[in-house]
Amino acid sequence: MHSKTLGWALLAPTLILLFFFGVVPFIYVLFVSFHQWNPFAVNPDMIFNWAENYRRVVFDAQFLASFGVTIAFVFFAVVSELIIGYALAQAFMRDFPGKAFFRTIHTLPLIMAPIIVGSIWKLMTTPSIGILPNILDDWLGYNLNIGQSALQAFTVTVIMDIWHWTPLVTLSLIAALVSLPPDPFEQAQIDGANKRQIFWHITLPMIRPAIIATVFIRLMDALRTVDEVLMLTGGGPGSATRYLGVHIFKEVFPRTNYGYGSAISVVVLYLTIVACWLLYVSLIAPRNTRKG
Amino acid sequence: MNEDTKPPKPGFLPIETNWFDRLFISVVIWVALSLFWFRFIEPLGLSIWICCAISAVLAVYIIRKG
C-alpha cells in the first residue's frame, strides 16, 4: 500500500471518532445557537431567530461579569499552578526521605472527580463545621465565610483549583526536567554560571515546550470550570464566582434556555480558541521572514 | 509542485501561514468584528450585513495576501 494511503487508513478510525464525537456535536450546538429553543415549553419547536442569541450575549451584563471573573480566575489559577508546579517539580527532582510517599500524596487530588473536590472543599469551608474557618478563627482571628464574602469565595475557588490541578503541572514538568541532558548544565557550572543564570538561560528554554503544552491544557480546562465551583459556591455570593461554565449551566439547565446557552457556549469556545491561538502565535509560531 | 513542497507564502502577516491558517484568522476576525458590531455599531443604526460585507472583503484579502 502507498505510504500516504496507509497513513490515511491508520488515521481513519481516529478521524471518524473525532468527526462523530467532536465535529458533529459542535455543528449541532452551532445550529441550536441560531434558534430560540426551549424543549420543555408549551411550544417546544426550534424557532430560527438569526443571530438574536449572539446579539443578546454582548448585552448580557451577567455574561460580561462572568467573563471578567473567569479571566481573573484563569489568570491567578494558571500562573500560580505553573509557579508552584515548577517549584514542586524541582523539589521532587532531588532525593529526600519519603520522596515516593510525598509524590504519591501530592498526585492524589488529580485522580479525584471535580464534583468530589467541590464537595470536600465545601465541607472544609462551611463556617460551622469546616476545618478551615475554625483553624483561621482560632489561630489568626480571621473570619472565613465564603457564603458572604465575594473576595473570599473567589480566592477559595482559585486555591481549590490550584490544589486540584497543580499535580498535573508538576508531573508534566518532572517529565520535562528528567528528559533534559546533563551536558549543558555541567558546562554552565564549569563556566561559573549561578543558579539563576542556569534557570533563565538553560532550564527554562529547554522545558519551554512542556510549559507551553501544560499552559494550553490548563487554560482550556480552567476556562470551562463548572462542577467544582458549582458544588462549592453555586456561583455566589451574588455573581462573584459565576464563571462562564457556571453561567452556561444556569442558563441551560434551570432555565432550559437551550438556544441562548448554546450561543454562550460557542462564544466561550471562540474565546478559548483565540486565547490559545494568541499564545501559540506569540510563543511558538514560526516568524515570517519576508514581510510583504 | 506539490502543496507540501511549496515554500511558505510570504505575506503581510508576521507569521508563516498556509491557506488554512489564513482562513482561520479570517473567521476569528469575522466573529470578533461581528460581536463588536452587535455591541457598539448596530445600536447606532448600521446593519450587521455591512459588517458581514467588510468581513468577507477582509477575509478574501487576508487569504490571498496574508
TrEMBL record, chain A:
GO terms for biological process: transmembrane transport. The keyword Membrane applies. Coiled coil: none annotated. The keyword Membrane applies. It comes from the Bacteria. It is a multi-pass membrane protein. It is found in: Cell membrane. The chain crosses the membrane at residues 7-31, 63-88, 100-121, 198-220, 258-281. Keywords: Cell membrane, Membrane, Transmembrane, Transmembrane helix, Transport. Residues 67-279 form the ABC transmembrane type-1 domain. Gene3D superfamilies: MetI-like. It holds the Pfam family BPD_transp_1. GO terms for cellular component: plasma membrane. InterPro entries: MetI-like, MetI-like_sf. Belongs to the binding-protein-dependent transport system permease family. This is Carbohydrate ABC transporter membrane protein 1, CUT1 family. It comes from Paracoccus saliphilus. The lineage of its organism: Bacteria, Pseudomonadati, Pseudomonadota, Alphaproteobacteria, Rhodobacterales.
From TrEMBL, chain B:
The chain crosses the membrane at residues 20-38, 44-63. Keywords: Membrane, Transmembrane, Transmembrane helix. Pfam families: DUF2160. This is Predicted small integral membrane protein. The lineage of its organism: Bacteria, Pseudomonadati, Pseudomonadota, Alphaproteobacteria, Rhodobacterales.
